[in-house]
Amino acid sequence: MPSNRQMNGQPCPNNTLDQFELPPARKNKLARLRAAWRKSWQEGGFLYQRWEDVFQARHASWHEIATWIKAAALCAGGSLIVMMVDTAGDIASTTLKGLSAAPATGAGDGSGLWGTVDHPIRVFLADQAAHLSVAPAALYGFWQLTGLLGLIGGFLGNAGARIAWVLFGIGSLTMIWSAAPAGGRAAATGLAALMWALASIFALRGLTLRPIVHNHPPQYQFNPALHLHAAIPAAPTPAGDDFGDEPDNLHPLQR
After folding, report:
1. How far apart are CA 90 and CA 149, in angstroms?
2. N or C: more exposed end of the chain, with fewer CB within 10 A?
3. 171-203 pLDDT, tens digit each
4. Does residue 147 sit in helix, strand or coil?
5. How far is residue 87's CA from residue 92's CA, in Å, rounded to a whole number?
6. φ/ψ (deg, to 5) at 245
């Protein structure tokens, strides 16, 4: 009786893997790839050296890090900055479009301390928007956004945000002076100046007008020294020397 490994006189495969046996050329190629992979991870191999660079970069300074790690970090950082700038541009564009499409809002009744300051600004922006292709609500929303960003950015110490906060305050005082009623113009402008000054305590936190003087020790050290040069007298001429009566064929030994 034929064995189970015989079928029609031909050997029967043991498992599924034997049915898909790779050709010799493919086997040789895979063997070379495995050998190259093992060799690259051995000491002195390509991947071994790259892994050592990554391991040493954790405790090294920027100048000691491998060049390929610096290049990869700079490329990744540049890509991240480009993505952030592109995203910020899209957000700003969407915000400005939303402000432009915002419906007009009422000018308010001007009651209370905040209304005394806010009402003239609304009136001024509404009058200016009549001559521009933008809604008064968009101008008012942009004015509020500028003040909010200047206040938060100035509190965090950003120089550009502090400049924007100063310009925001000057512009607000100018608009209030122009649009406030003539009888209460000075009071409304003064009240707005006091509010802006109080808010500047947070927006201009840490800002000082005093010059900063840095006292650094000198980078050089002067050590006076006295150098004495003593002249050594020449050896005396031995007695009996007739000054040049030696034969011409005799010369002193020179080194």
Report:
1. 18
2. C
3. 999 999 999 888 888 999 999 999 999 999 988
4. helix
5. 9
6. -95, 10
